[in-house]
Amino acid sequence: MKVLLATNNQNKAREIRNIVAGKDIEIFTLSDLNLASDPEETGQTFAENATIKAEAALAEMKEKGFAGYAVAADDSGLCVDALEGGPGVYSARYAEVNGKPCTYKDNNKKLLKALKKIPMPERTAHFETVAVLINEDGTRTEAVGQLFGTIGKHERGHNGFGYDPIFIPEGTAITLAELSAEEKDEISHRGQAFRKLFA
Ligand code: IMP
């Protein structure tokens, strides 16, 4: 089975290729097929945004005459209980001001500031991924992965990306950025969602 993963994030592609290793599934990224799909993520939920990405890639693939591929896409974010589930679908652009792009560091800084007065027991949060697979015949499968934990008080660790340096997974005392890529893959929200999707 050939699957176009609607992303150019090579780290995501690496993680998902590891997950499907040993299965009869070949993963391609947008750049592997010279596709440029990059729709605006206007959804209010992770599922809506994952579907927007998958459908846009599917449309471009059809337009360019590709056949024999299913399309997979995902959308993820961090949901902090003290922020009523925020930043959620806005995780990537949490610290954006007037449309000016922000860095992962800006996001972490803004979140630590927002939680400044919140004590550790109340800094609970989870990462969530919704992964969507659309087959050539239009049938659609969806899977959800969640990783629960706590937001620390300082950044710690240099691995991973995004909110990893401030997210302490449940049952550990270290941040996701202090885990190796392999250790993170085993527990990550994305890993859980894609393992379910391709099961
Ligand atoms: P995406 O949908 O995978 O592109 O994720 C959207 C945003 O959520 C990212 O830009 C990060 O800010 C955050 N995020 C998603 N997954 C992770 C993760 O595994 N670690 C840290 N941050 C993440």
For the termini, the CA-CA separation is 13 Å
Shape: globular
Q: Which cofactors or ions or other ligands sit in this model?
A: inosinic acid
**Rg measurement, Å:** 17 Å
**What structural class do you assign from the helix and strand content?**
alpha/beta
Largest sheet data: 7 strands, mixed
Low-confidence stretches: none
The count of helical stretches stands at: 5
- What's the helix-strand series? EHEHEEHEEEHH
Rounded mean pLDDT score: 96
Note the beta-strand portion. Answer: 15-25%
Q: Helix share of residues?
A: 25-40%
* Quantity of strands, as a count: 7
Characterization of the model:
There is one protein chain. With 199 residues, the chain is of the alpha/beta class. It contains five helices and seven strands, in the order E-H-E-H-E-E-H-E-E-E-H-H. Strands 1, 2, 3, 4, 5, 6 and 7 form a seven-stranded mixed beta sheet that branches. It is globular, with a radius of gyration of 17 Å. The chain binds inosinic acid (IMP). Residues 75-78, 91-92, 107, 127, 160-164, 188 line the site of inosinic acid.
What secondary-structure arrangement, pairings included, does this model have?
Elements: E1 2-5, H1 10-20, E2 26-29, H2 46-63, E3 69-80, E4 86-87, H3 104-114, E5 124-134, E6 140-151, E7 167-169, H4 181-187, H5 189-197
Parallel strand pairs: 1-2, 1-3
Antiparallel strand pairs: 3-4, 3-5, 5-6, 6-7
Inosinic acid binds next to strand 3.
